Amino acid sequence: MPPAVGGVDARSQRGVAWKTWGGYHVDARGVVVGPSGRRVRGSLTTRGYLQTTGVNKKKLLMHRIIANAWYGEIQGKEVNHLDGVRTNNAPHNLRFEYADCHRRADAARRRRQGKHHHC
To answer: Which listed CATH number (3.40.50.620, 3.90.75.20, 3.90.79.20, 3.10.25.10) goes with 4-113?
Structure first.
């Protein structure tokens, strides 16, 4: 059953699909509703990602919640933001990749955008 978001039942929002993972509900735009039924916006980490605190006080990255809900939890892989924007957590912008592939994709994106990353 879709969650109520901001007092509006998600079923009344035409064309909105919801997926669930770990008590979190996620729609196709990347909107997250937590186990409490409230929208989760997250806070910015020092690395530029959005995170929230789970019910067990563990820090959870928002893009992991969204990717796990939409694509299933995949151990041993990282979540890549296809456009390179760490706060763009729409499911269509996220993809699971192995770490080495993720690094290569990020490097190629930086070259295309004219940004040089120095390790």
So the answer is: 3.90.75.20
